From TrEMBL:
Protein's UniProt name: Ubiquinone biosynthesis monooxygenase COQ6, mitochondrial
Family of the protein in this entry: Belongs to the UbiH/COQ6 family.
Record keywords, A-Z: FAD, Flavoprotein, Membrane, Mitochondrion, Mitochondrion inner membrane, Monooxygenase, Oxidoreductase, Transit peptide, Ubiquinone biosynthesis
Enzyme Commission code(s) on record: 1.14.15.45, 1.14.15.46
Membrane topology: Peripheral membrane protein
Main subcellular localisation: mitochondrion
Compartment(s): Mitochondrion inner membrane
Gene Ontology CC annotation, any one: extrinsic component of mitochondrial inner membrane
Domain (FAD-binding) ranges: 49-288, 370-405
Gene3D superfamilies per the UniProt record, alphabetical: FAD/NAD(P)-binding domain
Function as written in the Swiss-Prot or TrEMBL entry: FAD-dependent monooxygenase required for two non-consecutive steps during ubiquinone biosynthesis. Required for the C5-ring hydroxylation during ubiquinone biosynthesis by catalyzing the hydroxylation of 4-hydroxy-3-(all-trans-polyprenyl)benzoic acid to 3,4-dihydroxy-5-(all-trans-polyprenyl)benzoic acid. Also acts downstream of coq4, for the C1-hydroxylation during ubiquinone biosynthesis by catalyzing the hydroxylation of 2-methoxy-6-(all-trans-polyprenyl)phenol to 2-methoxy-6-(all-trans-polyprenyl)benzene-1,4-diol.
Amino acid sequence: MSVLIKASGLGPVRLVFKQLSASRALSLSTKYYAETDTSKQKSSAEHFDIIIGGGGLVGTALAVALAKNKVLSDKRILLLEGAPPFRGFNVETQYGNRVSAINGNSVELFKSIGAWDYMQERRVKHVKQMQVWDACSDALIKFQDEHFAADVACIVENDLMLDAMYAQLADKNNMPNVEVRNNARIEALRLSVDTGDNYSQVHLKDGKTLTCELMIGADGANSLVRKQMNIDVFSVDYERRGVVATVQLEDACDNAVAWQRFLPTGPVALLPLSETLSSVVWSTTIAHAKELLDMPATDFTKALNEAFFKEYPKDGVVVNAMNTLNSLIGRDPNILRQYPPAVNDVIDKSRASFPLGFLHASSYVCSGAALIGDAAHRVHPLAGQGVNLGFSDVRELVKVLADAAYAGARLGDKHYLIKYEQRSLAKNVPIMVGVHGLHTLYSTTFTPVVLLRSLGLQLTDTFSPIKNLFMRRAMG
């Protein structure tokens, strides 16, 4: 055996050595050409300091806010939007069915970027009061500022908000550092944590390659940026749809009150637009949503009026408990209750629907990337907080990036991005948990739950400090 090993040992040893050498040579060659190819890509790629993926309300607001910040005014910013160029807003046309209830913080953001006056000059509806009540018990709460001095919210069409922000972006004398590219779809994305350097690579479907120091995901609930960040999400499909429409009121009125009633199938809201028009947001089952979209206009109008005025069956235990509470606190619910204006028509082609759900990313940032808006969080529209949370993200992120730039740090430095995450989480999580809890609480007709939520709602309305706490948070 030893002779055979001695006689033949040299050959196999040499053979293995040669194979290892060839393998290593191939590895080195592959690495060389890969690095050379990457270098070629970098040299041919167009570079930006910040690329924002998604040109919706939140992404566009971020682009304008970054450009308006004096510390960041020298940064080159690119806004990528997959849709065609925004067609603009015409105040002479009918109201759009996509509207948002903007709170005080969002108004301050628009003022800071020069967009609020633009909206005010066209059409913004100031809401002075909001009334919410339960169809299963008639428990009621009203929100308004003392002496109606401040707005509870402002109802603004989404297209008007976009138009106001694009008007700012079009002013190249004041905002030369921002570029908008439409019909620009991301095919592949390699973040800086993947490339091993300080730049992310964005490959577009038209074959172009871009690089950036900071990649922002403002690309919605199905965010490609979030997936590339390898971030886990907690999501819930509510198996409900939100039906929206623009409706004509039976009688002209001041129309400065927003109305919301919790039905057994979900909340229905009537948001004022003008003296004669309101916007409807009706959360309901998938099957019922389809019926509402398909039924004739007269039937839809009838169904909507019933949703607000119909007397639903009430459990005797709940009724007795509510009567006892009202007598103890000296409250006559019939005196305090107001009723919304009746609707007599729905504007043609204004009905549409969208799925409802809950989503929250486990993290908003990684080295070289950050998430804002629906890419990071998504909530039920019952409290009108969805887009306001996104605009809050914008304010916090701009502050952090300005601090990083002032300190001479990289924009993608995770040390700074974490500060944005912490500040946004502190604001977003309590609201998101509250909204999700309300949806869960009002998604049942189980008597003990109806009793508890009704007593809680009535007591909250009675004790001003508690109600004002909720109101201040909702109003921003």
